[in-house]
Amino acid sequence: MYVSTMKSVNYPLALPLDFLDEFKQAAKEAGLSTAATIRQSAKLGLPKFREQISSSRVTNVALLPAKVARKLYAEREEDMNSIRRFIAAQPKDVQHVGEEGPLATAR
Question: Are 54 and 47 in contact (CB under 8 A)?
């Protein structure tokens, strides 16, 4: 349980009323104060929260160090030739937005 001999700081926290009601009910069931219940739930829930936010990455590849990333992206990469080749390789029978054709809507 929470040890009150530790150094602490007051932190204002806005809670929706129904959420506060849940804390009050849990505090009553546990025989604790509402404040102690909020502290305990934060302490017990923090590891799960960290696990959830750290697992949001879709790759296991490590991030580039900031110094390396800055060096890589410092110079503008002129890629117009690749873009032109990509555009030229697109199928010619594709209808573009605003063009007339069998899929155009009647006005």
Answer: no
Q: Whole-prediction pTM value?
A: 0.45
Residues 30 and 24: their CA atoms lie apart, in Å, by: 10
C-alpha Rg value of the chain to the nearest Å: 28
Beta carbons of 17 and 23 less than 8 angstroms apart? no
34 with 17: CB under 8 angstroms?
Answer: no
Alpha-carbon distance of 23 to 35, in angstroms, equals 9
Contacts of 102 (CB under 8 A, 6+ apart): 95
- pLDDT per position as a tens digit, 75-105: 777 788 888 888 888 887 766 666 665 555 5
Contacts of residue 101, defined as CB under 8 A and 6 or more positions apart, other chains included, come to 95
Q: Which residue has the tokens 């960290």?
A: 50
Cα(41)–Cα(35) distance, integer angstroms: 10
